[in-house]
Amino acid sequence: MKYIVMAAVAILMSFSIQAQGRNKDLSTENKKAIKLFEEATSALTLKDYEEAESLFKQAIEKDENFTDAYIVLSELYLERNDLKSAKTQIQKAISIEPRKYMAAYFYLGEINVSESDYDSAIKNFNIYNQSNPPHSPMVDRATRSLRNCFFAREAMLNPVAFEPINFGPEVNTKYPEYYPTITVDEKEMLFTRRIEDANAFNGVHEDFYVSDKNGESWSKAQNLRGVNTLMNEGAPSYSASGKLLFFTACQLFDDYGAGRTGFGSCDIFYAYKEGKNWTEAMNIGGKVNSGVWESQPSFSADGKTLYFVRGKRSGKGISHQDIWFTELTERGTWTNPAKVPGLINTPQVEESVFIHPDGESLYFASDGHPGMGGLDLFVSRKNPDGSWGEPINLGYPINTSGDENSLLVSSSGKLAVFASDREGGYGDLDLYHFELPDNVKPQPVTYANGLIYDAKNLRPLDASFELIDLETGKSVAVGTSDVSGDFLIPLPVGKEYMANVSREGYMFHSENFKLNDKDISEPYALNIPLKKIKAGNAVVLQNVFFDTDSYELKESSKIELGRLVSFMNLNPDLAIEIGGHTDNVGSVEDNLALSRNRAESVTKFIIGSGISEDRVSAKGYGETAPLESNDSETGRAANRRTEFKIN
User: Less CB within 10 Å around the terminal CB: N or C of the chain?
Assistant: First the structure.
């Protein structure tokens, strides 16, 4: 409820200022009480809370009906976040003079919300609204708070299943742990821990810690060497493979020689994992970072979009925050950021953004949508036009009258992780996991992992890959394998995909595969051999399709053939042969003719795309060059193929 306290202090401060300037309007004529009150308000202005509290209480002892003293003393307690004491003072004041400080009913209602006493809050907000106050941010807040109260009462009558489980002492400590991120295979979790350190700025700093999953348990979290400094690092976001890390760094300059060059108070940085070590962190750049405040990055699993929070600082902290996004271009640069389109952002606070690997579910925290009172957790679904739909509140008791944030959801959708300071933890904020209600779960996602290697010597290769949804023709993931040839790609189930892999000096590789719902329990193995560009080497075009006994190209074939055209443009000295092959079903003559016609259809497409005729030839092989036995349907399917061969 920090927002409530700050808003209350900003307006209640006017009571003390006014009181000092118009003593004749005070609710007492006791001169000793007035003198003590004036001394108290001066101490409060200087933030000498202990002295001010003592003086206010002394003033009240001189006159127990001194309502101004009760009200401004409540201000002191609000600024110290002592809501219980503030409530007591407000109640005393309005019991004596119910109509003098109508704004007090607003703050009493806000305190009621923090206590989850929504019926009392509704009563007090209504009294405030019925006093016809002049329009102000407080009036707008009262309207939103009433909306939240009605929502919260209904939510508490219809609670969702919620059984949070603490990660235990291997992950959690007496220090705060928060902002987790997890690899798409759910085997490694990285999170932020705020620790005490006499050498750090202000004696504390935020560092990253990493824990590995061993069966059903998690290993002892270790400091992430290479990225952490004596400054603050926080809010991390892994790429799908866990080999690219985005994070936030604040206090960009200090006296310890550990500063990072930045554009604002907090910037987004990134680092790569090479083998077991991390590269030096680099600023993502001035196109994304600005002179204000950027934080809480979340990198999409397809490797294309970075979501983040941008806020503007005021004298009392962050005054407004929205969720923004930027996209990675083919040149490796970032587009100009924009606010996410649709219904997510409000004039209030949005933060703690997390894009699920399904690419269609965006989780975030907000106090601008109907909720329980503070920052609530929501999910929004992506519309076909790319905008984001009406946010869905995750429900009570996942959300409470306090602030909830720092949520992530695993690729499978079975594991949700968040930070909480609830009772029974190890100290301050701990990380917990729980199962999401069905209506706010993401689309199930599994992953493909494997190895890219040289087909002849089996040496691992770093190479670029792209996966395309065959139904829509849209790219769903792009990336590169590392020097070890390993790669990992998250994929929604129930779809058919085309995989294209390329590397300079090698022929591109393609294949297609389908992930059924049952595939979610196990990753899809996608080991890819690449052949060097060499005369005689051939590659099967796995994503060139024809109907049975037809040589008319299906529309879905044109994606892969476009890749072949690009390959030839990148290698202008190459000439290729397109070879058509069939199984042994039907006559030899018919199969030969069909294979030749299919090869010619592909050749016409390539020439029609701008490749010179003298660089492409067509040949039908019929059933004469099978890859596998024709005794099974699997073998016959493999033999029905189109290849390209280097001449």
Answer: C
